[in-house]
Design brief:
The chain has 171 residues and is mainly α. The protein is 61% helix and 8% strand. Strands 1-3-2 form a three-stranded antiparallel sheet. Helix 3 packs across helix 5 (92-104) and helix 4 crosses helix 5 (92-104). This is MarR family transcriptional regulator.
């Protein structure tokens, strides 16, 4: 699967042009960081579009896929909703929305926690497990094995982004 294209290819890199503008306006010290962050955000858009296009035929978004895989990797195929939010590093409302959609599709069930009436346990259904497997196979083939970078570049990118995430307190 190719990179999502614009209606017409651009003649120049707009981020490089913006960097030149930053320098021209006296912000040379911030220009490299602006270009890096803007490039990262654009790369995120490109990667997310590829992932979402791959998952769309299976009826799940990347956010819902993440929930399915977290449950798939758990020993029992179930986790408390609060733990899902914590492990995915998202707001509980985002998990509630994803679980609502997954439950409507028959991919998970929701039950009261046996020890805490305020908590909910989310459990992967057999259909949810099958969807997670199909989605993973598609993502591995169409996106993850072909990220658009060399193996060396991928390893360097993961290392660099890992440092950025660590410095930000992500782990």
């Amino acid at each position: 699967m190719g990179t999502p294209a614009l209606a017409a290819a651009l003649d120049a890199d707009p981020i490089a042009t913006a960097r030149e503008q930053w320098v021209g306006h006296g912000w040379a010290e911030a220009a490299p960081g602006m270009a890096a962050i803007t490039s990262l955000m654009r790369a995120h858009q490109i990667a997310l579009a590829r992932v979402e296009a791959t998952l769309k035929p299976l009826g799940v978004s990347f956010a819902r896929y993440e929930v399915l895989m977290l449950l798939r990797f758990s020993k029992r195929g179930s986790l408390p909703m609060k733990l899902i939010a914590s492990r995915l590093q998202v707001h509980p409302t985002s998990v509630t929305n994803a679980v609502d959609r997954l439950e409507s599709a028959g991919l998970v069930t929701r039950e009261a926690h046996p020890d805490d009436r305020r908590a909910l346990i989310i459990t992967l259904t057999p259909e949810g497990r099958a969807t997670a497997e199909k989605a993973t196979a598609a993502l591995n083939t169409e996106v993850f094995a072909q990220p658009g970078l060399s193996t060396r570049d991928v390893e360097q990118l993961v290392e660099i982004l890992g440092r950025m995430r660590h410095r930000a307190g992500d782990f």
